[in-house]
Amino acid sequence: MSRPQETAVYTHGHHESVLRSHTWRTAANSAAYLLASLKPHMKVLDIGCGPGTITADLAALVSDGHVTGVDRAPGILDTARAEAAGRGLENVDFAVADVHALDYPDDTFCVVHAHQVLQHVGDPVRALREMRRVTRPGGFVAVRDADYAAMTWYPASPGLDDWLDLYETVARANGGEPDAGRRLRSWALAAGFTDITATSGTWTFATPEERAWWSGLWADRTVASAYADRAVGGGHATPERLRAVSDAWREWGAREDGWFGVLHGEILCRKDV
Asked: 32 CB contacts (<8 Å, ≥6 apart)?
């Protein structure tokens, strides 16, 4: 199999402020559109599994089947293995893999799942073709991605406007597409799928606890993560600009009337029999 010719840099990295978000994710809050299609016997591939919280949930749901979690970053897989071990799950394993060129035979998995992955890859159509290839006939490819330009908040904040403009610039400079959510169905069609169910889902952060958590992780990520390094190193922002954006996140999070909505595109694609 040829190796991928087009790649992208994972914009966020795995700083604690990033993992604070990733470890919050569950099958219920991040893959609800898929759950009704899961059966206990299924064999599942979870691409871009990160710290493994969704992967472990999926393994619990396919108790008579098996889940393989894969990620391009070897280090994060130790965290994922610890998550599964801590839950006493024995039907899950983890491996390093590149979604552009998966090292699995054709027709291997009943379900191939990817959450917040295609926005970061260099060739999302190729990635979907690979996901389709390793899915069994009649099985599903399930993908969910945020759409940054569709994120919305209240009250208005010039600092958060600057955050969105800067994030989209940095993500695209890294080879990704931050507004992936709206493009998923189009990419799936280009990858050869014909049976596609397209939906959307949201995360909402409005209570004092939710606002503090969401604003705090973005305030920290803006100045301390790989994203911050790439923003400055790529010539997209100065440290002073990043500090101003970080301060804007904390100011918004302290607002009693603050509200933030994250829109996600979702596709559930059945592979032709």
From this structure: 201
Mean pLDDT of 199-226: 96
Residue 182 backbone phi and psi in degrees, to 5: -75, -15
What are the residues facing 115 on neighbouring strands? 144
> How much is the pLDDT for 1?
36
54: left (phi over 0), alpha (psi -120 to 50) or beta: alpha
Name the β-bridge partners of 114: 47, 143
Q: How far apart are CA 94 and CA 46, in angstroms?
A: 9
> Which token pair is 104?
């699995």
Interatomic CA distance for residues 179 and 184, integer angstroms: 10
User: By C-alpha distance, which of 117, 105, 107 is closest to 55?
Assistant: 117
CB 13 within 8 A of CB 226: yes
Instruction: Inform me whether the pLDDT recorded for 15 exceeds 90.
Output: no
Place of tokens 């009649």: 138
Q: Which residues pair with 140 in a beta bridge?
A: 111, 270
Mean pLDDT of 211-231: 94
Is 197 a residue whose pLDDT tops 60?
A: yes
